[in-house]
Amino acid sequence: MSEPQLATSTDGETQDLKLQAKQLRQRLDTAVEQIRALQNESSGLLAENKYLEEYIGNILAPASAK
Fold first, then answer.
1. Per the database entry, which stretches of residues form a coiled coil (predicted)?
2. Minimal CA–CA distance to 40: which of 30, 48, 28, 52?
């Protein structure tokens, strides 16, 4: 009985896989940067929204007291 043969890759296939892995890593890094930028932007917008709610509340409070 013969031993099962393990699949082997050529140097060209290995280089292709390494290049694909490098490209995927770069895409992942870019996506992570974009997500962080969006998180920072949304945090700023939430803070601005809270400020505007308080500002409008302060304007409306005297009007509702009448």
1. 14-48
2. 48
Q: Is 10 part of any domain?
A: no
**Structural domain for 49, as ranges:** 26-66
- Rounded to the nearest integer, the mean pLDDT of the chain is 89
Residues 6+ apart with CB under 8 A from 10: none
Residue 44 lies in a domain: yes
Per-residue pLDDT of 9-31, as tens digits, reads 788 899 999 999 999 999 999 99
- Say which residue the tokens 């809270």 belong to: 50
pLDDT of 6 strictly over 70: no
Residues ≥6 apart with Cβ < 8 Å to 9:
17
